[in-house]
Amino acid sequence: MRTATTWLDGVPSLDSRDLRDVQRISCTLLDRLAGDRDLLTRLVSEVLRDPERLAASRVTLLLNRLSLYQAADRGFEIRLNMNPRPGNQRVAHDHCYAFATRILTGGYVHVVRRRTNGWDGPFTGADLEPGIVTIERPGSAYTLGEAMVHQAVMEPDTVTLFVRGPRRKQRSHAAQELMPGKETWPAPAQPGEQAVESRPVTVDEYMRMRDYLIQRRLTN
User: Fold this and answer.
1) In the structure, what pLDDT confidence band is assigned to residue 39 with cuts at 50, 70 and 90?
2) What is the pLDDT of residues 197-207, one digit of tens each?
3) Quick one: where's region Disordered (predicted)?
4) What is d(CA 163, CA 80) in angstroms, rounded to the nearest whole number?
């Protein structure tokens, strides 16, 4: 299922190797969507009726997310991140894609690390040096490429808009010795299942996330 035609259908492709292009397009997109409460509400509501977006909405060891809009033909997906797990935020990691994010509520300490063992492949905490440390608050936005390693230690009420570009690497990496223990991973969706680092949301979890957004007046 696709959302009804909106201005999102006119957003240019994010399939660019120039991070400046990705930043320019992404920041305009996120700023406009953050100010379009009716469209944000519609996108959240449509997730429940779209099996593809519901399956792409996840409960992870770092936070929960809804997949709001998918544009594979233009190389991007828009997500809404929330419910961060503060005890699991310290693990340094990279991504398979360039991305941009905009903070709607809450905030966090954001640390971008410098790798000392090259720009790709696995790494440990010993391979990282301090880079840039910023305090992100509502309205803050930034863009990172797939080679960058970062940490975001979020406040409990943090909600962010997030847009990712196309996959550029086979897999992402994290400092394994800093990974949260399995006892902190999301609870299984069904009794008897194994806990995993990331799994699709259940309908009940989606409903709680939708209500969470309404209560905080981010959607109608």
Assistant:
1) very high
2) 899 999 999 99
3) 167-198
4) 9
What is the strand order of the sheet 128-136 is part of? 128-136, 108-115, 149-154
Q: For 146, what's the count of Cα atoms within 13 Å in the CB-facing half-sphere?
A: 18
Tell me the whole-structure pTM to 2 decimals: 0.94
Question: In 3D, which of 35, 30, 38 has the Cα closest to residue 80?
Answer: 30
Is residue 15 within 8 Å of residue 75, measured between CB atoms? yes
Mean pLDDT to the nearest integer, 148-155: 93
CA-closest candidate to residue 66, choices 77, 74, 76, 75: 77
User: Residue 187 above 90 pLDDT?
Assistant: no
Q: Which two tokens stand for residue 76?
A: 């991007």
In this predicted structure, which of 31-35, 168-172, 201-205, 215-219 has the lowest mean pLDDT?
168-172
Q: Which domains does the chain have, with CATH numbers?
A: 15-180+202-215 (2.60.120.10)
CA–CA gap between residue 30 and residue 213 (Å, rounded): 17
Residue 202 CA to residue 59 CA, distance in Å, equals 9
Identity of residue 200: P
For residues 48 and 160, what is the distance between their CA atoms, to the nearest angstrom?
Answer: 20
pLDDT of 34 above 80: yes
